[in-house]
Specification:
Length: 360
């Protein structure tokens, strides 16, 4: 348990070094800042999830590997977007509504379908990796059609500064190597500490993966989105979350399933509860995102409250508390249907406004 905090620190520091070194190295080789921002930086913030899930899958800790991916996506959308929107209402870029969110919904549904038979095998993992390659090629081809002004104002990665201490490719390679080393070391410490913690608290490794490990490995996304919201870069705050969620499924789970010694056996509770929750919060983004392309503060508060409720349910269920049944009934009979109706009404009103605008 003593290695949990050092493991988190190593993961966050390793991700920072990897992102800085890789993005600078890419710029040194003439890759546009836009492509670097959409690939290296977005993927780099999810590198802790990748390190932990790959290490867990390779060592046979399948529950932590799967729980980390699903839990991180739920945390990213409900907690990080919710917290960022409470700081300032978030503007949603139209491309996210048209492309990235539907893609995230699609791959989330695909994961749920593939896991419904009780396992995610090597071929399933290779399918996710192939989709990741296709998505990356799509992003690169789209960036080539952007104007030079758009590339310079990306905001995620700045143009190369010839006077910076890390402008030399040798330093950049050292940063990448050091970042990878810290990620490997930190993932080993974190996974070992998480297993120990689960045993001490009498909780399953799946619950620890869905909560503590998922939150810990999502710290780079927390820092990126919250700071972007504070600085007024609201599109970055949203794009970072959605991009990281796509990467978590396609790369983190895809690579973990591809290299694991055997099939990743999925606990029955995941297709029955946790994956439907992940799909539901992803689908909920669509009506919230396209109604005015803005996440209001009250919507951010709603997301944050739902994450607290989800975490409370997991803890009550793991502890076998008597209040778990009543809490579950309250959520499924009253809170969730009320939210669904609210989202449908929002979408319907926005659709009516669009129709009336076209007629006029």
């Amino acid at each position: 348990m003593l290695w949990f905090i050092p493991g988190l620190i190593a993961l966050v520091l390793g991700a920072e070094l990897l992102v800085r070194g890789a993005s600078r190295l890419a710029l040194s080789f003439g890759i546009s800042p836009l492509v670097v921002g959409l690939t290296v930086v977005a993927f780099g913030t999810s590198s802790p999830e990748l390190a932990v899930s790959v290490q867990s899958a390779w060592s046979g800790r399948v529950d932590i590997a799967l729980g980390n991916v699903v839990g991180s996506n739920i945390f990213n959308i409900l907690f990080i977007l919710g917290m960022s929107a409470l700081i300032t209402p978030l503007v949603v870029h139209r491309q996210l509504v048209r492309q990235e969110v539907p893609l995230l919904v699609g791959v989330s549904l695909l994961l749920w379908a593939l896991a419904s038979d009780g396992g995610v095998g090597r071929w399933d993992g290779l399918l996710f990796v192939a989709l990741l390659v296709g998505y990356t090629i799509l992003v690169i081809s789209q960036s080539r059609r952007d104007t030079a002004a758009d590339r310079e104002t990306n905001g995620e990665v700045l143009p190369q500064d010839g006077t910076a201490w890390d402008c030399h490719w040798g330093v950049q390679l050292l940063l990448v190597a050091a970042g990878l080393a810290l990620l490997i070391l930190g993932s080993n410490w974190l996974v070992g500490a998480a297993v120990t913690l689960a045993r001490q608290l009498g909780m399953s490794e799946l619950v620890v993966g869905l909560t503590i490990v998922a939150i810990g490995t999502s710290l780079p996304e927390v820092a990126t989105s919250v700071m972007a919201a504070v600085r007024g870069e609201r599109d970055i705050a949203v794009g970072n979350v959605i991009g990281s969620c796509i990467f978590n499924i396609l790369a983190v789970l895809g690579i973990s399933a591809s290299i694991a010694p055997g099939e990743l056996l999925v606990p029955s509770s995941m297709p029955a509860f946790d994956m439907p929750v992940m799909v539901a919060v992803t689908v909920a983004c669509l009506p919230i995102f396209f109604t005015g392309h803005l996440i209001a503060r009250w919507e951010g508060g709603l997301f944050l409250a739902y994450y607290m409720a989800y975490t409370a349910y997991l803890i009550l269920d793991a502890a076998g508390h008597d209040a778990q049944a009543g809490f579950s009934t309250l959520m499924s009979v009253f809170v969730l249907p009320l939210t669904a109706v609210t989202l449908i009404v929002l979408a319907w009103r926005h659709w009516k406004r669009l129709r009336s605008g076209h007629r006029s």
